Amino acid sequence: MKAVICTKYGTPEVLQMVEVDKPVPKNNEVLIKIHATTVNGADARIRGAVFPSIFNFPVKMAMGFKGPRKKILGVELAGTIEEIGKDVTRFRIGDEVFASSGANFGAHAEYICLRETAQMTHKPSNMSFEEAAAVPHCALAALYYLKKGKVQPGQKVLIYGAAGGIGTFAVQIAKTMGAEVTGVCSTSGIIMVKAIGADKVIDYTKEKLSESNEKYDVIFDTVGKGPIKDCVNVLNGKGVYYSAVHLDLSRIIEGIKATLTNSKKVIGGVATYTTENLNYLKDLIEAGKLKTVIDKQYTLQQMVEAHAYVDTGHKKGHVVITVNGVTNK
């Protein structure tokens, strides 16, 4: 089968299209023919070894020092089950599924084997493979943090990085929770962020968050770039600032100081993905309450170009990879 491998850290040009053995499912696994996958910020950071300085050594110890131990990157996918192990009961051959491969990666290929217990469920009936492939990583992360924030109807929620992969889902999910949502993005994302449901949008290139008269119950920073001091200052008395990404020690220290000096909280950490939450998202999608925003679409053969575009930092929503030439369904 064809797969894109990353044998060393570096620019997008380190990626190579190669032929590798087609995987064979174990007794508790399914073999999925991948129709679509994505390139997101996490893929680009791993390929480029953009790890938080304080965690650089332990991350490379886990991931690989000269290059990723898991050569085939990609953490989310949509496709059709082609084979099942003898112990599999949840799925059948021919089932259309979407899934997160998580720390096992492997989605930038024509086929992948996943355990039946992986974060995987049947594809939403009203989504194409391309749309569904973008859900299992970013939408699960958004749902995790918003649930952690215990967002309630009527609360004011600010999404920093609202035009990105996690952000576009976070805006929509927060709205389903009954929140009044303010998105923060650049000028080019304003129309789109409003279109997906944001009640208000702040253009960070023209307006400083510190100048806002609003107070928020929950701030979710999807990109790890929100000014922590300003974010804490616009929180309500017991508000919480969640960051999905911590890229440097200074931000971590600033967050700890802010938490220790007042009743407001600054919380980071890694999102936990569950099949239960993936099914929750599937229900929202089939109810017409959640959709995927696709910025650009590439083929597996264009993986270098896809990574280069993600590296620009200007993507809106998702960059999707069509693997086997399957068109929208």
From TrEMBL:
Residue ranges annotated for the Enoyl reductase (ER) domain, each copy included: 10-321
Gene3D superfamilies assigned: Medium-chain alcohol dehydrogenases, catalytic domain, NAD(P)-binding Rossmann-like Domain
MF (Gene Ontology): oxidoreductase activity; zinc ion binding
TM segment ranges: none
Superkingdom assignment: Bacteria
Cross-referenced SMART domains: PKS_ER
Identification of the protein by name: NAD(P)-dependent alcohol dehydrogenase
Species this chain originates from: Draconibacterium aestuarii
